[in-house]
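Predict the holo structure. Ligand: FE2/S2 (inorganic) cluster.
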Amino acid sequence: MTLVSTQAFDAALVEEIARDEQAKALSFFGEACGLSAALLPILHRLQDTFGYVDDQSWPIIARVLNISQAEVRGTTSFYHDYRHAPAGRHVLKLCRAEACQSMGVEALVDHLRHHHRLTSADGGLTVENVYCLGNCALSPAALFDDRLVGRLDKARLDALVAEAAR
Ligand code: FES
């Protein structure tokens, strides 16, 4: 299943989303909370809509929320889950936290690099790091689109790469 949006950047849609989330934040929290309360919901919706948060969105969001572009940029880069470039058709999130480290995730990363010659974003498959998927008992763990994968090994990894290539 392909989960990543491939919709092209659209400035008018970014503004529409920003204004919509701004209105929701105001009606929910009231004026006292400040307009920046809408910033994270806006970034989430942009990533859902476009598959990433385009840098061209920053001035639009800043204008709508009456905050600085630096604040938008800082928030976008602080949270690792926001992408800054379009993702592939599929996303493989590999857990690199302690339990998965101790169960050999680094060997799987090397396998992706050397056997499949995959880097972080490669055509149909984007590979991202995450730090604990809550599946430590079945480490090494990964998330392939919306599917949690446990006890990942080279054979399972090969199958996921092949599935992404179809
Ligand atoms: S450390 Fe990898 S799932 Fe928790």
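The first strand starts at residue 90 and ends at 95. The chain has a mean pLDDT of 88.
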